[in-house]
Design goal:
Alpha-Beta Plaits, 29 strands, DNA polymerase, domain 1, 22 helices, 683 residues, alpha+beta
């Protein structure tokens, strides 16, 4: 039997965030709906387990659910992770094949990133889906799922089941078409990975709550110190004008020393500029320099910010008015006619934003490199502090507070990983997004993650140069393949080229430049030293450059490209630009490398590692891009280390057998182990 299944559960609103998982103490499973995919109307059944109007005290409803699961060959769901975790956590057993209609649609979407809710999928396919707006009123009233009238809840669940069934059959018809034949393998791997990621979520990652608070305090103190230095520096370069560095507009003014005339028209002005001269002229004509200011006491209110009107008898009114001369500030500003700010010039129209110029991480990196290369010590220190302040603020909000919010009472963070957010197939994180965890070995937040076992260890197995090896394989670049065989350190080479070009850098800092050309980036908008590396990259790795050209031509000819794994990416609106290259060229070059590396290779290896760990107490607790994290039982340390060693020997064979391809570039896992996720050492 092919069984369509959906669950309804209560939801907890805690700390302003919705928690839908079964690990939230107040959440419980309300209903399980099921139907036979091949005979839906005759077999539809809904089992109510815990509702205000009906509760399964006898356990008979549960037994019926389990009987259906025991007699199922294929379990069909929309967003299977959610349904599986509720089934498993509530004691139901199922270890057979699954079919996730959401993921099936995602693969068929070929990187277009269309909405994938059941409603959105049904609307795109013109299925008989009826919007269930009636339930929203109950949630607005503060009612939970188990408080919604049972008849309405059953109707809602019934309709979701029927729609999921329709969507399943529609998807299978599309997969049967010749143009989708290569997607079958991707579908199978994706469904297997869905089960693995669900089990990772359920296992949880143990959090040392005391260490978390120590790290939080450390970041908060550092943030306060940086803010003091930044405000001091702002006063030095801007004068007495108050500057809010949280404002992108005001931050742009500090860095570029210019104020935009008309914000509504500003960004559109540069759409048709084609030369550097035109860009500079447009900037000069539509913005003006900012001058340092000196504050003096407002003579009208004498610094009070308010003035008192006088009555006819000469006495003051009881209530004052705001001083209009100084807008109640108590002071006025006088231009010194000396240009304020750090006086950087935006290098291209790509830097233009609605608020002036972009001040994101990439832009700050370029400005920092420029300042260092030109010995602008004042600017370099300021930008370094600005970058660190942004990072620390992000660490506090995204990681420290995120971990606080989503760590359950048992001190476990259940790591949420999704497969359908990115265009390439790479995993995304949620609640919080652990995929954004900085990779450096010095990031202190990683120290809060420890083993659940007394004297246990944390092991991380990381692919070595996965993107570079992937690009070498896909492009069959002879130079890159030979360097991999020789053990060449490509990141050290990148650092040397940039350093020799006049911009000293480290191996770690150079990594982003190693990967960038693999993902389609050019030297445009970079420093001279960095641009020199990008040029040298294309000259050195001619096979990769030629492969990029072929991808562009394939996209123009077929409106799609296909990876060696069979994964496809569609470009329905691609056109040839005036310079001869296709539109969307960066994505066309990016998707195959990132897709094959983290969307195709990593899931295969992750599934295999999970399979080999199933007979142990040790378990997978996280995966971050191209690494896998294992919580190791103290009695199994040698066994898990040997597992990684054995897996290393089988890597290429696993990939070959899965996708039916010949891997002539070796893949490699490097493992570290330690008492926590931060303090790991090479094995």
């Amino acid at each position: 039997m092919r069984l369509v299944l959906d669950v309804e559960n209560t939801v907890t609103n805690r700390d302003g965030k919705l928690h839908l998982d079964p690990f939230e103490p107040n959440n419980h499973l309300v209903q399980v709906g099921m139907l036979d995919a091949d005979d839906p109307k005759a077999t539809l059944t809904i089992k109510t387990l815990d509702h205000n109007e009906a509760t399964d005290f006898t356990g008979f409803q549960r037994l019926e659910v389990q009987w259906n699961l025991d007699n199922t060959d294929l379990l069909i769901m929309h967003n299977a992770q959610h349904d599986l975790m509720w089934l498993w956590e509530c004691g139901f057993k199922y270890d057979g094949d699954i079919y996730d209609t959401m993921l099936a649609e995602y693969i068929l979407d070929r990187g277009q990133r269309n909405p994938l809710s059941l409603e959105a999928c049904a609307e795109r396919r013109n299925l008989n889906f009826q919007k269930q707006d009636t339930l929203k009123k109950y949630f607005k009233e503060g009612k939970n799922t188990n408080e919604i009238p049972l008849a309405e809840l059953c109707h809602y669940l019934e309709h979701d089941l029927l729609t999921t069934c329709e969507l399943f059959h529609a998807c299978e018809k599309d997969y049967a078409k010749a143009e989708a034949k290569s997607l079958d393998t991707i579908k199978r791997v994706t469904f297997n990975t869905c089960k693995t990621l669900t089990e990772i979520y359920m296992a949880g990652f143990k959090v040392d709550l005391q260490e978390l608070e120590r790290v939080a305090k450390e970041f908060e103190n550092e943030k306060a110190e940086i803010e003091t230095r930044l405000q001091k520096k702002v006063r030095e370069v801007m004068g007495d004008t108050p500057i809010n560095l949280r404002s992108p507009e005001q931050k742009s003014q500090v860095l570029f020393s210019r104020r935009v005339h008309d914000k509504k028209e500003w960004a559109d002005l540069f759409e048709f500029t084609s030369t550097q001269e035109e860009f500079k002229n447009a900037v000069a004509a539509n913005s003006s320099p900012i001058y340092r200011t000196t504050a003096y006491t407002c003579p009208s209110c004498e610094g009070q910010g308010k003035v008192y009107r006088l009555k006819k008898d000469g006495t003051k009114f009881a209530r004052p008015n705001k001083c209009k001369d100084c807008d109640a500030k108590g002071y006025k500003l006088k231009d010194s006619k000396q240009i304020a700010g750090l006086r950087f010039s935006a290098p291209s129209k790509k830097w233009v934003s609605a608020n002036g110029f972009n001040t994101g991480k990439d832009e700050l990196d370029v400005l920092s490199s420029t300042a260092k290369q030109n010995r602008m010590d004042e600017a370099f220190d300021f930008i370094s502090d600005l970058k660190r302040h942004n990072a620390v603020s992000s660490y506090l909000s995204s990681f420290v507070n995120g971990i606080r919010s989503y760590t359950k009472g048992s001190a476990f963070l259940h790591v949420g990983l999704t497969q359908h957010i990115t265009a390439t197939g790479r995993f995304s994180g949620r609640n919080p997004n652990m995929q954004n965890m900085p990779r450096g070995g010095t990031f202190p937040v990683k120290k809060v993650f420890v083993s659940r076992f007394n004297n246990g260890k944390i092991l991380e197995a990381d692919f070595a140069q996965l993107e570079f090896r992937t690009a070498a394989f896909l492009a069959q670049d002879e130079t890159a393949m030979q360097e991999i065989a020789d053990g060449f350190d490509v990141h050290a080479y990148t650092a040397k080229v940039i350093t020799d070009a006049g911009q000293p850098t480290t191996r770690q800092a150079a990594k982003e430049h190693t990967f960038a050309p693999l993902f389609g980036a050019s030297g445009y908008g970079r420093t001279k030293a960095e641009a020199a590396y990008y040029k040298q990259f294309n000259e050195k790795y001619k096979g990769i450059a030629a492969w990029h050209t072929k991808l562009g031509n394939d996209a123009l000819r077929f409106l799609k490209i296909e990876n060696k794994s069979g994964r496809q990416y569609a470009f329905p609106d691609v056109t040839r630009r005036s310079n001869g290259t296709p539109s969307h060229f960066t994505m066309i070059k990016n998707y195959p490398v990132q897709g094959f590396a983290t969307g195709d290779v990593v899931p295969v290896v992750l599934n295999e590692m999970h399979k080999r760990l199933r007979q142990m107490k040790s378990c997978l607790v996280n995966t971050v891009h191209d690494s896998m994290v294992v919580d190791v039982h103290p009695d199994e340390i040698d066994q898990v280390v040997k597992l990684v060693e054995d897996l290393n020997l089988d890597l290429n064979k696993l990939i070959e057998e899965t996708y039916g391809i010949e891997m002539n570039v070796p893949m490699l896992l490097e493992a570290k182990i330690g008492n926590n996720w931060l303090d790991t050492v090479d094995i």
